[in-house]
Amino acid sequence: MLFALMAFVCTDDVILAADWKSYLLAATLTDTKSTIERPLGSSASSKWKLVPEFSDEFDGLALNESKWWDHNPYWKGRQPAWFDPSNVRLKDGMMELSIRRTDPPANLQGQNYHNLSTAAVQSVGTLLYGYLECRAKIANATTVSAFWLYKTMPKEWTELDIFEIGGPTKDARSKSIFQTVHVFKNETVSQHAYLGHEVAAPFRPSEGFHVYGLDWTPDVIRYYVDGVKTHEGKNVHWHQPLWVNFDIETHPDWFGVPKADEVFGSFQVDYVRVWKPVG
User: Fold this and answer.
1) Cα 88 from Cα 121, distance rounded (Å)
2) Cβ-based neighbours of 76, under 8 Å, separated by 6 or more
3) Cα gap 126→270, rounded to integer Å
4) H helices within 99-256, ranges in order?
5) What is the pLDDT along the chain (279 residues), one digit of tens a residue?
6) Backbone dihedral region for residue 209 (phi beyond 0: left; psi -120 to 50: alpha; all else: beta)
7) How far apart are CA 148 and CA 215, in angstroms?
8) Which has fewest Cβ within 10 Å: 40, 171, 174, 191?
9) DSSP readout, 171-219?
């Protein structure tokens, strides 16, 4: 996952900035939740059907293996940290992704992985279109917590970052929510292009739970925070079934790396819900 920069465009005619609009997030409701019946950002009159294959309340004792991997099967993690399945657990009705000081396994030594492990969860299946929403509290750490979709194929590779949020509360960007679309390659694109929006939130995501959403349709992509629309644009390239991902990553060139004496927080996800419109 490549990180977003403020109000950035790395594109020519691949992703037209004129096709996208951003909105001010002036205020949100603290501790807001959606219902099973419909997403928080949808209208009261709209009708939706929950997609159980990608929805989870995380109320069990262990991760549902029919829905989720407790790691990313296709990526070991961004150096210097590596994804450790033991850093994923369910606790108090939530999924918790943690950070620990621990040496990498023998197969990762010599690959610039250090004694720092993070966590990743990826869906077993792939999703094409839908309204995705999670209620989460971001890790208060020198890392990036993320909720995103992607899939790499020989001839097609696209990505939708519902959020990337990083940095401890003392960091100046601790109120920034990065929402990004990427196209690396497809039938018409051979070079990576991306466009995104840095949402200036009126809260610190590491200090409380908030709801983050993405309405992904064949025609339009819309981003939401606590039910408030923050970014939308024309769907030109994102017609590929994608894996759903949660993870914590180190981003040395963006937020730096955790200090030796840093006390880590965890990335907590209360639920993830995915709907399809009815009718």
Assistant:
1) 8
2) 82, 83, 108, 111, 113
3) 21
4) none
5) 433 333 444 555 677 777 888 888 877 766 678 889 999 989 888 999 999 999 999 999 999 999 999 999 999 999 999 999 999 999 999 999 999 999 999 999 999 999 999 999 999 999 999 999 999 999 999 999 999 999 999 999 999 999 999 977 777 788 999 999 999 999 999 899 999 899 999 999 999 999 999 999 999 999 999 999 999 999 999 999 999 999 999 999 988 899 888 888 899 999 999 999 997
6) beta
7) 13
8) 191
9) STTTTEEEEEEEEEE-SS--S-EEEEEEEE-SS-GGGS-EEEEEEE-SS
Residue recorded with tokens 């219902």: 35
Max Cα separation, the chain? 56
The amino acid at residue 122 is Q
- Asked if 141 and 264 count as a contact pair (C-beta separation under 8 A), the reply is yes
* The two three-digit tokens of residue 214, written as one number: 């993405």
